[in-house]
Amino acid sequence: MPKPKKPSPERFHGDLARICRNLVTEEYGERPLDFRKEFSWRIFRIMSEFVEGFEFLYDLRREVSFFGSARFKETNYHYKEAQELARMLAKEGFTMITGGGPGIMEAANRGAVEGKGLSVGLNIQLPNEQRVNPWVRRSMAFHYFFTRKVMLSISAQAYVFFPGGFGTLDEFFELVTLVQTKKVEPIKIICVGKDYWQTLDTWIAKHVEHEHHAINPQDRKIYTIVSDIHEAFAILKKTKEKKYGNS
After folding, report:
1. What angle do CA 56, 235, 225 make, to 5 degrees?
2. pTM to 2 decimals?
3. pLDDT, tens digit, for every residue of 123-157?
4. With left for phi above 0 and alpha for psi between -120 and 50, is residue 185 left, alpha or beta?
5. Cα angle at 109 between 62 and 237, to 5 degrees?
6. DSSP category for residue 221
7. Domain 60-237 carries which CATH code?
8. Is the Cβ–Cβ distance between 108 and 82 less than 8 Å?
9. What are the boundaries of each domain within the chain?
10. From CA 244, how far away is CA 247, in angstroms rounded?
């Protein structure tokens, strides 16, 4: 018996569109449908963001994702360090991925451009503006924070964390947890700046590991704290490209 042919993407999208139209007619008749407010239709918007996000990232190579405070100005020490590290990586053929906003994100995109590398921003759509820094050269805007969050981590071969606020710490602990629980393959998580990260690591060691036994000793080896960007660069140069979709 001949093997059935795999449907083309065009056929799939066409079938999906027809299903959507039938659902609209069946449930709402001729009444105008506001896709932004009807809860059930948010599922399709979420699906589309994931599909478009995966397609957007597919052609990128040797990606490194940068995280850090959006509040740092270009005169800030950590801004300058992120900019220089991105410049160094770009010269080695790496692609810089950020959230597309200001601060450390801007510094990484700026360094990528200055190093003649690819500068990518995955930004978030806000009610009155689409926040994106001027150094992004290839971008995609997301409506949902959680789909954007997945895309920031889905295909990078390493993650670089500079000092930041709750958002930065949220990203850091989520990635550490994904590696700890083996939901993603082991991957380099580099924390730049002992003045910031060492205090956090000391707290984790003392209270989380030793006093409460809430993690295993090897869990703190998931991430690496470095003194400067040159130490980070030496580690990042040795990382291997991640197989797409292994998350």
Report:
1. 100
2. 0.82
3. 987 765 557 899 999 999 898 889 988 898 877 99
4. beta
5. 35
6. G
7. 3.40.50.450
8. yes
9. 10-53, 60-237
10. 8
